[in-house]
Design brief:
This protein is of the alpha+beta class. The protein has four domains: 6-144 and 246-321 and 617-671, no CATH class; 151-235, Calcium-transporting ATPase, cytoplasmic transduction domain A; 330-356 and 500-613, Rossmann fold; 357-498, Calcium-transporting ATPase, cytoplasmic domain N, CATH 3.40.1110. The chain has 24 helices and 21 strands.
């Protein structure tokens, strides 16, 4: 059955993406689209009209040649695509379902059962049209995203604003996005701020706040602000276009089960033909049955034994699963990875940027007991922010960001000196002040007060990085560190923040049958153990180099079997390639991640991993439901044909009906939540 309408069934989604092309090319594409989408419907209707007209004409005594002409016409319309596929299969020395259907119809005509043969072809054609329509729903779920991309954009060139087609945009154009407008191209905000609905890309419906310097994507929706965006990708190379192209490619890649069934189809079809030939001649020549009765029964068997429903049982489900995932921002690179994800027993996570947000945040401010009386938590944070204000280190940025968030006035400072790997010092509020790790003070032989050391050790046990603040009272001109009365002001602690959904996501994975969750990180064991404790991770491997992560993954595969690896797709490329299933997270706009991983999560939520596992397992369940149902129907129909002389039309209805039921069952995955 797949062969009859293989062209519309597997038509590319990218055919719907607007591109600049010549009129001749556009006309050819229009004809091709009409041919693959409209002609099968028209031919099916004409086949029905021909069949009805033939039956009515015969009942009214119309000349036999006229009736014959109508019958031949119904065969042409009903078998047009099937004949093409059968001929192509014959050239390739293959036998498929289409050939079985055509042979059945020809066989019916041979014994002068034209009407039944025409009815067979009509129902076969109708079934394929309905099947194609149903499967189009999987593609339409993705093609609908294209409607979110505007056809025109407002661009500023030479000081003037004008509306132009998005195909005319070039790199570095400045486009103007008004409130509520869909963004026309991938780019970077150069002016303005707004909340952007990125559901079309990431699958996450909560708008994301964006400001100058942040990336935006075509087909996402601007909120209440006016934005000026510098174009970084052409329309044909946008993140949305690449998503659609990836999904289209994935839908063409066969799942393992589908490959096995299609391989089985050729041998099975040969077996059906040989069995049919045996049913024609053995009862006639050996048992003395009438040739007509033997031939008719054989034709019924040829129809009902055809594995149409069996062959489509896998793609109907897998394509729907791929489409469903894409709407959620989960891109499966092929049907094989849908099946493989359903088999995953353990999942390994990179720490930074995966289990954590990948950005430092100030978590604690401790005011030491041996400090001037006027030092408070706010003034200590202000002083720390002043010292860290010129540094580009992530820890420094976290300190400054916290001070700004609390709207604390940051004092000026002078004589800034950076001590790489240790800290910084500068003159602030008239005093030489130091901020840095314990190592900086230890190297100078300083004795840190007991309360400060206790706070430091407590924070470090929690997996945090600690910075100590020391001021040289009365020694503002020195650059050395001296233990002055009241000089130890306190300390601050920063940490890479665990994702808000990490705990829930890990628990959900375990509920979905994942037997082990593992962390692979290059960070130290203390920090790693703390993150694992917070998130519910089962096993921790710390202080790992990239090549060591690969070795650990191989060990995990021996222990658990199918192991998935979740990372950012850039720094974890070797590990993602080694894992049974590589999953790149937060990959919107990242070419490397899209190329490296087997499954790409466009958004930043860990819950999508659990969703992918659940979706894959349900897809596998429905595939096996379809396979068992298809085989059962074949057994029942063949038994009815052999034991109860089932008429050909009944066999056709049962055969085609089972195919439509299988397709409908697979399409249920589009509604999976």
């Amino acid at each position: 059955m797949l062969g009859t309408y293989s062209s519309p069934f597997y038509c590319t989604i990218m055919d719907t993406v607007p591109t600049l092309e010549s009129p001749a090319h556009a006309s050819a594409r229009l004809y091709e689209a009409f041919d693959t989408q409209k002609l099968p419907v028209i031919f099916t209707v004409l086949c029905l009209i021909s069949v009805i007209t033939s039956v009515v004409s015969e009942s009214y005594g119309v000349h036999p040649y006229a009736v014959l002409a109508l019958n031949i016409l119904s065969y042409v319309f009903g078998g047009w695509y099937g004949i093409q596929e059968a001929v192509q299969s014959a050239r390739e020395k293959k036998i498929n379902v289409d050939m079985l259907m055509i042979l059945s119809a020809i066989g019916a005509a041979t014994v002068n059962q034209w009407h039944e043969g025409a009815t067979l072809l009509f129902l076969f054609s109708l079934s394929n049209v309905l099947q194609t329509y149903a499967m189009d729903r999987s593609r339409n779920a993705i093609k609908a995203l294209l409607k979110l991309r505007p056809n025109e954009a407002t661009v500023r060139r030479n000081g003037k604003e004008e509306r132009i087609p998005i195909g005319d945009l070039i790199i570095d154009d400045i486009i103007i996005i008004i409130p509520g407008e869909n963004i026309a191209a991938d780019g970077v905000i150069v002016s303005g701020s707004s909340a952007i609905n990125q559901a079309s890309i990431t699958g996450e419906s909560v708008p994301v706040d964006k400001e100058a310097g942040d990336a935006v994507y075509a087909a996402t929706i601007n909120g209440s602000g006016v934005l000026e965006v510098r174009v970084t990708r052409l329309a044909t190379d946008s993140t949305l276009s690449r998503i659609i192209q990836m999904v289209e490619t994935a839908q063409h890649q066969r799942a393992r089960t589908q490959y096995l069934l299609e391989t089985f189809e050729s041998y099975y079809a040969i077996g059906v033909i040989l069995f049919t030939v045996g049913l024609i001649f053995i009862p006639w020549l050996v048992l003395g049955h009438e040739f007509y009765a033997s031939f008719y029964t054989a034709m019924v068997i040829l129809v009902v034994a055809s594995p149409c429903a069996l062959i489509i049982s896998t793609p109907a489900s897998i394509l729907s699963a791929i489409a469903n995932g894409a709407r959620k921002g989960i891109l499966f690179k092929g049907g094989a990875y849908v099946e493989r994800m359903a088999e995953v027993k353990a999942i390994a996570f990179d720490k930074t940027g995966t289990l954590t947000q990948g950005r430092m945040k100030l978590t604690d401010v401790y005011v030491g007991k041996h400090n001037p009386e006027n030092v408070t938590e706010s003034s200590l944070l202000a002083l720390s922010a002043a010292l860290e204000g010129r540094s580009e280190h992530p820890i420094a940025k976290a300190v400054v960001a916290e001070a700004n968030e609390r709207k604390i006035l940051i004092p000026d400072m002078t004589n800034f000196v950076s001590l790489p790997g240790r800290g910084v010092h500068a003159k602030a509020e008239g005093y030489l002040t130091f901020i840095g790790g314990y190592r900086m003070f230890e190297e100078h032989g300083e004795i840190i007060p007991a309360d400060l050391m206790q706070a430091k050790e407590r924070f470090e046990k929690e997996g945090k990085t600690v910075l100590i603040i020391h001021r040289e009272l009365g020694r503002s001109g020195d650059k050395g560190i001296h233990e002055d009365d009241g000089g130890w002001l306190g300390c601050i602690a920063v940490a890479d923040v665990v994702r808000e959904d990490a705990v829930i996501a890990i628990a959900e994975l375990k509920r979905n049958g994942i037997v082990a969750t593992i962390m692979l990180t290059g960070d130290n064991p203390t920090v790693a153990a703390n993150i694992a404790k917070q998130t519910g991770i089962d096993e921790v491997y710390a202080n790992l180099l990239p090549e060591q992560k690969v070795e650990v993954l191989r060990t995990l595969q021996k222990k658990y079997g199918v192991v998935a690896m979740v990372g950012d797709g850039v720094n974890d490329a070797p590990a993602l390639a080694t894992a049974s299933v590589g999953i790149a997270m937060g990959a919107a706009g990242t070419d490397v991640a899209m190329e490296t991983a087997d499954i790409v999560l466009m958004g930043e939520t860990l819950m999508n991993i659990s969703y992918a596992v659940n979706l894959s397992k349900r897809a596998r369940k429905i595939v096996w439901q379809n396979i068992l149902f298809s085989l059962s129907v074949i057994v029942i129909l063949v038994s009815a044909a052999l034991g109860f002389s089932m008429p050909l039309p009944f066999g056709v209805v049962g055969h085609e009906g089972s195919t439509l039921i299988v397709v409908a069952n697979g399409l249920r995955l589009l509604r999976h939540r």
